[in-house]
Amino acid sequence: MSGLSGGKGIFLLWALMLFSGLCVVFVSHQCRLLYSELALLEQHKNRLEVEWGQYLLEESSLASLHRVETVSQRKLGMRAPLLDQIVVVRP
Known about the structure:
This protein is mainly alpha-helical. Helices cover 76% and strands 0% of the residues.
């Protein structure tokens, strides 16, 4: 008789089926872990995007022309020149 005898063949099939089932369980567990990690990373990304938007708003308010003018007048004592103090240089 060629091949495996009845008992050995059934045992081999049973062992392969058990191994296959364990592989499915392992891969399913890994998928759940990775999906959980992905969800956490997406939450972190969303928080960083909100923070970035807040920084952009803060930057635009700090760089506004009105604020720059106010700070330059108060802290540095700067002012706009009078008309007779303006010199036009022609090329």
